[in-house]
């Protein structure tokens, strides 16, 4: 997420660096923290670019399990920083928290390198189990059922039946809908190891993510006008790190193996840790532990954090094994069927929003309540935006893998994981333009209000999906869309992100009652966590039948994705238009906050 640029000219004051001791007019320590964040994001986004494909093609999980697990993982990644930030503020300090989190994340990435052998595909047809082979040398990666000495090609049909084709393509058997079940014979040990790795990354991220930003803030004295510009530079490290890792890690996973892609992510994380661990005293006095009375609790905190890893692992296992809701059970039955992680996230969010508003009504003035009401309304719309935007790591990655021609002008072919690089590239390229745009419009009194920017972002993310649906009309005979339609979606989504991401956190600090700014910030991150979880649920709707990690019918796959993307595109545009229409009322509640 990139924040808008601000006036970067240094001012004299308590935090002004000595002459010759600056980095582009900022405290020299910013360079080290910038590089630390860049390498951490290099590792995280490199791992994220591989995760969905790793689950689907190495462990052979079906689409529903793959996207659900991905959504649960990213949800916890956004939730744990709430705890990690609190622990750092009260006990560890930011610097020790960042180092501990970096170690845990690096260990998690290294653990992902040990995935064992690829799961062996099989199919259960009318109650009888058959071996499945996948011809990965062929362009279509055709799957075959092994029936004695015969190899029968598998073809999924639009009506849900499955045809088994003999030599010459003749249909030898048709399996009725529901009679064909694909699976993978995978190692329980390596599955457990993979979930432990994700749990380590989740806990480690909770310590690292909030506290590296806190250290950047500590470089500037209150009122220092360089602060916003410093954070803009710092956040550029996020996109630079992700830009390169989303190219290199997927390439290594294909050229060498999954372990190499995850291994490079781990190396990047170790670079990040080393910059803080071996700072040569350059960060002395920044991010130090608060003064405490009594014994040092750091070892106890480290121990409890390690103990938390199996608890997170349990949430992942519960998520994977949750039963599907019964048909006709309604919304109550659906909520009761949610896994424990879903109940915790939805329950907390559904209770927190009205509780905070009720408290604001009771203790605040009418103006304060209306400002809080505006903040909560925008937080709810924020859930919708990130739910759809975060299809990038799940359904859009699978779409790139299955229904996208990844050739770049015939010069070379990208991997599906590398397509996520488009977002980071467009953010880096467009952020300066958007910063100048908002500044220029503000000077003329034409800058859109915060609710209008949110509405434009929601409409934009929907428009991106509709653009891809439009491009699907021009799919070739192989039912694949050219890469540039997917790039167009990411261009539109990146522009939408720049309308909402830079203003969100600032909006919360300006609209919240001073006594509960921290709680409102927590609610903001909780909304993103809920959005990540819901994003996994939306991606599950786009699930298609796979055998051996490959779809059985590319036409069915394309039609499924197009149907889901069309629906969520229209819904998102509709919600965005609704928000723009009610924006005058929300702006009135904001009482002049810009």
Automatic annotation (TrEMBL):
This is Proton-dependent oligopeptide transporter, POT family. Keywords: Cell membrane, Membrane, Peptide transport, Protein transport, Transmembrane, Transmembrane helix, Transport. The chain crosses the membrane at residues 42-61, 67-88, 100-119, 189-208, 229-253, 259-278, 299-319, 331-359, 371-389, 421-442, 454-472, 484-509, 521-543, 563-586. Gene3D superfamilies: MFS general substrate transporter like domains. One of its GO terms (biological process) is oligopeptide transport. It is found in: Cell membrane; Membrane. It comes from Edaphosphingomonas laterariae. InterPro entries: Dipep/tripep_permease, MFS_trans_sf, MFS_Transporters, POT_fam, PTR2_symporter_CS. It is a multi-pass membrane protein. Its main location: membrane. One of its GO terms (molecular function) is peptide transmembrane transporter activity. One of its GO terms (cellular component) is plasma membrane. Residues 1-23 are annotated as: Disordered. It holds the Pfam family PTR2. Belongs to the major facilitator superfamily. Proton-dependent oligopeptide transporter (POT/PTR) (TC 2.A.17) family.
């Amino acid at each position: 997420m990139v924040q808008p640029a601000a006036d970067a000219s240094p001012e004299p004051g308590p935090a002004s660096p000595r002459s010759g001791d600056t980095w582009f007019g900022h405290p020299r320590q910013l360079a080290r923290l910038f590089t630390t964040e860049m390498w951490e994001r290099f590792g995280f986004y490199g791992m994220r670019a591989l995760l969905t494909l790793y689950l689907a093609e190495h462990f052979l999980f079906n689409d529903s399990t793959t996207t659900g697990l991905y959504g649960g993982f990213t949800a916890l990644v956004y939730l744990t920083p709430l705890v990690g930030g609190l622990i750092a503020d009260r006990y560890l300090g930011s610097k020790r928290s960042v180092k501990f989190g970096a170690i845990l994340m690096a260990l998690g990435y290294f653990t992902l390198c040990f995935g064992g052998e690829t799961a062996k595909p099989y199919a259960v047809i009318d109650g009888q189990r058959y071996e499945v082979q996948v011809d990965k040398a062929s362009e279509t990666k055709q799957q075959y059922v092994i029936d004695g000495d015969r190899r029968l090609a598998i073809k999924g049909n639009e009506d849900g039946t499955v045809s088994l084709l003999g030599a010459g393509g003749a249909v030898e058997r048709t399996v009725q809908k529901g009679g064909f079940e694909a699976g993978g014979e995978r190692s329980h040990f390596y599955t457990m190891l993979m979930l432990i790795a994700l749990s380590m990354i989740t806990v480690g991220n909770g310590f690292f993510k909030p506290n590296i930003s806190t250290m950047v803030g500590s470089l500037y004295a209150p009122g220092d006008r360089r602060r916003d510009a410093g954070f803009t530079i710092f956040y550029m490290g996020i996109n630079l790190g992700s830009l390169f890792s989303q190219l290199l890690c997927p390439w290594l996973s294909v050229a060498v193996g999954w372990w190499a892609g995850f291994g490079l992510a781990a190396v990047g994380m170790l670079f990040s840790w080393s910059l803080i661990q071996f700072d040569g005293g350059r960060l002395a006095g920044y991010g130090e532990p608060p003064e405490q009375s009594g014994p040092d609790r750091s070892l106890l905190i480290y121990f409890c954090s390690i103990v938390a890893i199996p608890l997170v692992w349990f949430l992942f296992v519960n998520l994977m094994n949750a039963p599907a809701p019964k048909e006709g059970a309604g919304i109550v039955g659906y909520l009761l069927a949610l896994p424990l992680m879903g109940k915790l996230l939805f329950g907390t969010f559904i209770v927190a929003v009205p509780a905070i508003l009720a408290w604001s009504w009771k203790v605040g003035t009418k103006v304060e309540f209306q400002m809080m009401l505006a903040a909560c309304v925008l937080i709810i719309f924020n859930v919708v935006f990130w739910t759809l935007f975060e299809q990038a790591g799940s359904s859009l990655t699978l779409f790139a893998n299955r229904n996208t021609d990844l050739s770049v002008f015939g010069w070379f072919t990208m991997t599906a994981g590398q397509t996520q690089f488009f977002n980071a590239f467009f953010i880096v390229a467009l952020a300066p333009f958007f910063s100048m745009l908002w500044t220029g419009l503000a000077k003329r009194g034409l800058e859109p209000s915060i609710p209008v920017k949110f509405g434009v972002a929601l409409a934009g993310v929907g428009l991106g999906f509709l653009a891809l649906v439009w491009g699907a009309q021009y799919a070739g005979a192989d039912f694949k869309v050219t890469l540039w339609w997917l790039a167009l979606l990411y261009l539109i989504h990146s522009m939408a992100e720049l309308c909402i991401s830079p203003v969100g956190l600032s909006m919360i600090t300006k609209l919240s009652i001073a006594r509960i700014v921290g709680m409102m910030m927590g609610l903001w991150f909780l909304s993103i966590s809920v959005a990540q979880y819901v994003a996994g649920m939306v991606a599950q709707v786009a699930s298609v039948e796979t055998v051996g990690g490959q779809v059985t019918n590319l036409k069915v796959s394309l039609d499924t994705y197009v149907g889901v993307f069309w629906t969520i595109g229209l819904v998102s545009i509709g919600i965005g238009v609704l928000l723009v229409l009610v924006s005058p009322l929300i702006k009135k509640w904001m009482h002049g906050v810009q």
